[in-house]
Specification:
The complex is a heterodimer of chains A (118) and B (215). Chain A has 118 residues and is of the alpha+beta class. Chain A has four helices and five strands; from the N terminus they run H-H-E-E-H-E-H-E-E. The radius of gyration of chain A is 15 Å and the shape is globular. Residues 1-16 of chain A have low confidence and may be disordered. Chain B is globular, with a radius of gyration of 18 Å. The chains are: A alpha+beta (118), B mainly alpha (215).
């Protein structure tokens, strides 16, 4: 796990050209990520409020899809964005309602621009 | 072909009663939108009826066929888990939009999947038909992500504490379907009999397939 964090920090500090252009996926299975917190709740975002600011693990990449945050406003030709299945322990989300020893989890599909490495 | 369809769409006796959204207000909105689209000529009545007919063509029977095949053919099962969209296209099932993809989640002895859409009602309609009303209710959508074991209990499913639950909150791009565990004592059943054990609820994860004695 320590190795994963180190590698992601490097990626974060020195992104290569392919990453900058969105050609390759920034994250791969097992990477630890944090979901951004964004107060634009009145806009068309697919990232539910309950998962914003939470830390999870990349399960898989789904490939690239049109960005719904642009599509909703008629911007059909906006660049496609990588979409990832990300898994979170429920105990980390509902901190008081869940027993610490629970391995129950939740997965959500989250677009790359919502994620940062941790 | 659809002779045992009723078994698939009939509701479990233990199905809990969730609140329904405020249908009267939604109905008015839908009717208003429909009339506007028709009056502006953006859509015709015939097109609308065709779309509804296409939606109604699909039922959980379609999903059950796919799962029964996965239970009986290991190679197909592997392909289904690796790339759901591609695997079901072998059987003639294609998503309504080019962009939409399918991920099939295999339950194991230690992991149970439960599907919800907290934002609206995302559902693999092209494999299961329209979602049940409770799937769209505020109660199911909010509680499935915060108290999945409680929800399962209300559907009559009590999981061993050693089995972890993995809730999947799905959105537009990727639709999810559960691949339930094949019940024991089904080794000698044929495809049609296996399909008869697979309920709609077991494909969402709020139920389990019937046992042969019950089914």
């Amino acid at each position: 796990m320590r190795k994963t964090i180190y590698r992601n920090n490097l990626t974060c500090c020195r992104p290569n050209l392919d990453n900058l252009l969105g050609h390759t996926e920034t994250y791969s299975a097992g990477d630890l990520v944090r979901v951004s917190y964004d107060s634009r709740i009145m806009e068309h975002v697919r990232t539910p409020l309950y998962i914003q600011g939470k830390c999870g693990t990349i399960v898989k990449s789904h490939g690239k899809f049109a960005n719904p945050e642009k599509l909703a406003y008629g911007l059909q030709s906006s660049p496609k964005v990588h979409l990832y299945m990300v898994e979170f322990y429920l105990v980390n989300i509902w901190t008081t309602a869940y027993a610490n020893d629970s391995h129950d989890s939740i997965c959500l599909d989250i677009f790359e621009h919502w994620l940062t490495s941790i | 072909m659809y002779d045992n369809l009723e078994d698939h769409v009939s509701h479990s006796h233990q199905e809990p009663h969730f609140d329904s959204p405020d249908t009267s207000s939604f109905e008015k909105q839908v009717e208003g939108l429909k009339q506007t689209l028709l009056s502006k000529g953006l859509i015709t009545q015939v097109e609308l009826e065709e779309m509804i007919a296409e939606l109604d063509q699909r039922t959980p029977f379609d999903g059950a066929q796919i799962i029964a095949r996965a239970w009986t053919e290991r190679d197909f099962r592997n392909r289904l888990i690796a790339n759901g969209t591609k695997a079901v296209s072998e059987l003639g099932y294609h998503p309504p939009d080019d962009f939409q993809s399918l991920v099939v989640l295999a339950n194991t002895e230690f992991l149970h999947h439960l599907i919800v859409c907290t934002l609206c009602s995302c559902y693999p309609r092209w494999l299961l038909g329209r979602p049940p009303d409770w799937y769209k209710s505020i109660a199911y959508r909010s509680r499935a992500v915060s108290d999945p074991r409680g929800i399962l209990n209300e559907f009559g499913v009590t999981l061993d504490p050693n089995i972890s639950i993995r809730v999947v909150d799905s959105t537009a791009e990727v639709r999810y379907m559960v691949l339930p565990l094949r019940p024991s004592g089904t080794d000698n059943l044929n495809m049609k009999e296996l399909v008869g054990l697979i309920t709609r609820d077991s494909l969402i994860g709020v139920g389990l397939p019937h046992s042969p004695s019950v089914g």
